[in-house]
Specification:
The protein is an all-alpha fold. 75% of the residues lie in helices and 0% in strands. It has 2 domains: 4-152, no CATH class; 153-202, no CATH class. Helix 2 crosses helix 5 and helix 7 (159-178) packs antiparallel against helix 8 (185-201). Its main location: membrane.
Length: 202
């Protein structure tokens, strides 16, 4: 069970990841303004932020046994932070393919974005074990001793049932995103964060 010290360290780590990513984004935008390819740099940085934070939250939930209420609160808060900080990055292949199908992205742009997303995901997966190896908390130390292996399978249901659940969640998520124009702009990110949190709870 994750103690208050473990939770505090993880919160500081999440903040550190977001701050590092935001500094990198602002630096890139400052050094290379009005460059067409800057969106791909933002895609790399933002997807790294998303994946690195997700790894830490997953560790808290699986290894730390985080209480559901705290887990859902963190999910909502970090989703809001992601939404306000991504600067136009999509960060998921499914979201990119959806925009391609709608005609808002060209094939080349979509392919490049997805490539950036996959590279960033691999980098985040490679970097986080090195961060955990620093043993900043007892939770990180415990995870290091297990060789950074997940304790639970993410799929706790028959394959077809799990696939149906994933498809249902994806449908709800994209349906919500498609209707965002009906929501006042300042509430759009919290609305999506609320949908994500609800799906995690479900």
């Amino acid at each position: 069970m994750a103690g208050m010290a473990d939770l505090t360290v993880s919160l500081f780590l999440l903040v550190g990841i977001v701050v590092f990513s935001e500094v990198a984004r602002r630096t890139a935008l400052y050094l290379f303004p009005k460059r067409n390819w800057i969106i791909y740099v933002l895609e790399l940085i933002s997807t790294f932020q998303l994946c690195a934070c997700t790894h830490e939250l997953k560790l808290l939930a699986e290894v730390g046994g985080l209480e559901p209420q705290i887990g859902l609160t963190l999910t909502f808060l970090i989703s809001v932070v992601h939404g306000f900080s991504f600067h136009g990055a999509i960060c998921t292949p499914t979201g990119t393919l959806e925009q391609l199908c709608r005609g808002t992205l060209t094939r080349g742009c979509a392919l490049t974005r997805i490539t950036c997303q996959l590279i960033a995901a691999v980098v985040a997966r490679s970097v986080m074990p090195h961060v955990w190896a620093l043993a900043l908390s007892d939770l990180h130390t415990q995870h290091s001793l297990t060789g950074f292996k997940c304790t639970n399978s993410p799929v706790n249901a028959p394959l077809l049932s799990a696939a149906a659940v994933e498809l249902s969640c994806a449908f709800v998520m994209h349906a919500a995103a498609s209707n965002l124009e009906k929501v006042e702009e300042k509430y759009q990110v919290p609305a999506i964060a609320a949908v994500i949190t609800t799906l995690v709870y479900a």
